[in-house]
Amino acid sequence: MKTIIDHIDMNRMKTGWVFVWLLFISLQVHAQSKYVQIIVAPSTYTYGPRFVASLVPLTGQKTVVLNFPGKSKQELTRNIFAYLQQRPQLILKPKYSNEDLITYRDFSIVCDSSKCMAYLAALTYVYAMPEDGKIQLRFGKGSTLFSSLYKVDLRITRQDDVASIGNAPFNEYKFVQPEDGGELRSNKILSGYHTAVIHYGIAYPESIYDPKGKLINPGVKQIIEQYYDTYITDLNDFLGKLAK
Fold first, then answer.
1. 43 near 51, Cβ under 8 Å?
2. For residue 144, which phi and psi values (nearest 5 degrees)?
3. Which one, 8, 76, 167, 233, has the greatest CB density within 10 A?
4. pLDDT digit string (tens) for 58-113?
């Protein structure tokens, strides 16, 4: 991880915390606005974890669809740009955008250790695909959750890399705890090796699922789902007002 921090983005990060907090308040008012869910399924890989988790639309489709009957693609495109102008913490990514796709990025706090047993932050890419009468949304490649058992101060660089102030330890968040295992460690006093058992349940208390895919932290699951729902709810509410 790079440690050269973009000080402009530090201010954006602080603004983003306020933004997400206000969105959470909004969700309490619009509790019915739920679009995504985290699901767990057996892994298809030969090696690695037996179960993997993913964030998917409630509909089971690849995208979340917001409907705006009677609105043209061009009008919806203009309205999305108007939305981004009102949300300076959401950074437009022209390199990954075109006439059919608008990509923007956010980096903000998700939860602290009092609620999630660790400090969680998210780098989020939103893909908005306007069409006549509707917008398709999905969270893009590169969207990543980060966690730390320490009170870490995370920032984002100009290159969209995530770093911590003071090099405090953090890592990518694991939705599913790894299985307990052992590793060989040398012991010079005993002139040999011994096996040390690694208990991942202790190292990853904030994970949603245990290694067998059992839900162990439903509260954390709900917080993360609500966090991603806010991006969809906020855009839908903003565009809905313009459509009236």
1. yes
2. -140, 140
3. 76
4. 999 999 999 999 999 999 999 999 999 999 999 999 999 999 999 999 999 999 99
